[in-house]
Specification:
Layout: E1 2-6, E2 12-17, H1 19-61, H2 64-71, H3 78-106, H4 113-125, H5 128-139, H6 146-151, H7 160-184, H8 188-196, H9 201-229, H10 233-238, H11 245-256, H12 258-272, H13 274-290
Antiparallel strand pairs: 1-2
């Protein structure tokens, strides 16, 4: 401990240092730091195990025999193909339309941007069942756009098109918000420097902005994919046919009970999970490569 006194000029002067006092003060600080670390690790482990609990139950409750019995008959994998096709199309539309929107929002180049953001967030606030009900009145045969769709031989209820629309509404906001955050994380000065060096805006976007935002875009895309594959609330209202995997799980549960739905639940997890996991691993690796670079 450093002891001070004031000299004749009222200036503090060190008199002595007590080494033991430093140890006494530092020991509780080290103990508190270690205790907080242990508590944080314990809490993280608990949350991690709790989140993985349902998946562990699913794996433990499904036997190879039940999987063969449920998925072996001809046509049993039809809902898988329907979900994969509809989700891929819905996600493609989301990426094509949502990426420019997210970029313009991140750069503040849209009029009334808060109103546009509210339009993106609003579907997240509405229950999926409400979205499905409103879509019936929007694109159904008697809906506002139903007559226009009929002219191009499209029907907004109980068709593959209706399934794609329902998945678009349920998954689109997740990608747009993720892409918005990804583009906002890229310093605009990097783009400006690229254009000062001779790149056109499109070239700066393709060569600079897009690679830097790619990890965030990948995570937004993976989240939207999982959401589209698991869409149920809006789907059960507007697209009961053709039957995708989430609806097949619901119907199997009604017909055969909880155990009868588990093989299809496992199939949905196997189909939907790889893309988010791979996107997360790639995103984490890409961020670790660029975290030490000062691009400004």
């Amino acid at each position: 401990m450093v002891q001070l006194r004031l000299d004749d000029n009222r200036t503090p002067v060190a008199l002595s240092v007590v080494p033991g006092a430093i140890t006494v003060v530092a020991a509780p600080a080290r103990f508190a730091a270690r205790a907080s670390t242990v508590l944080a690790l314990a809490g993280s482990a608990f949350v991690w195990l709790a989140l993985l609990g349902p998946l562990a139950v699913l794996v433990s409750r499904v036997s190879p025999r039940s999987v063969r019995a449920s998925l072996g008959p001809a046509g049993a994998l039809g809902p898988l193909y329907v979900s994969l096709g509809a989700s891929a199309i819905a996600l493609g539309v989301v990426v094509v339309l949502g990426t420019p929107l997210a970029y313009l929002l991140a750069r503040g180049r849209l009029p009334v941007p808060r109103v546009v953001e509210l339009g993106v967030i609003l579907p997240l606030m509405l229950p999926p069942l409400v979205i499905g009900l409103l879509l019936v009145f929007l694109i159904g045969p008697q809906g506002t756009l139903g007559n226009l769709l009929a002219h191009v031989h499209l029907t907004g209820t109980n068709t593959f098109f209706a399934l794609v629309v329902a998945e678009f509404y349920e998954a689109g906001p997740f990608y747009i918000l993720g892409a918005h955050a990804a583009f906002a994380s890229v310093d605009v000065r990097v783009e400006q420097d690229a254009m000062l060096l001779g790149d056109r805006p499109v070239q700066a976007f393709r060569r600079i902005t897009l690679p830097l935002a790619a990890p965030g875009l990948a995570m937004g895309l993976a989240t939207a994919w999982a959401r589209a594959m698991g869409a149920f609330g809006a789907v059960v209202i507007i697209a009961y046919f053709p039957r995708g995997l989430p609806l097949q799980i619901f119907i199997s549960m009604q017909e055969y009970g909880l155990s009868g739905a588990l093989p299809f639940a496992l199939l949905l997890v196997v189909a939907a999970l790889p893309l988010p996991v791979l996107a997360y691993l790639w995103s984490a690796r890409a961020r670790s490569r660029t975290s030490g670079l000062d691009l400004t």
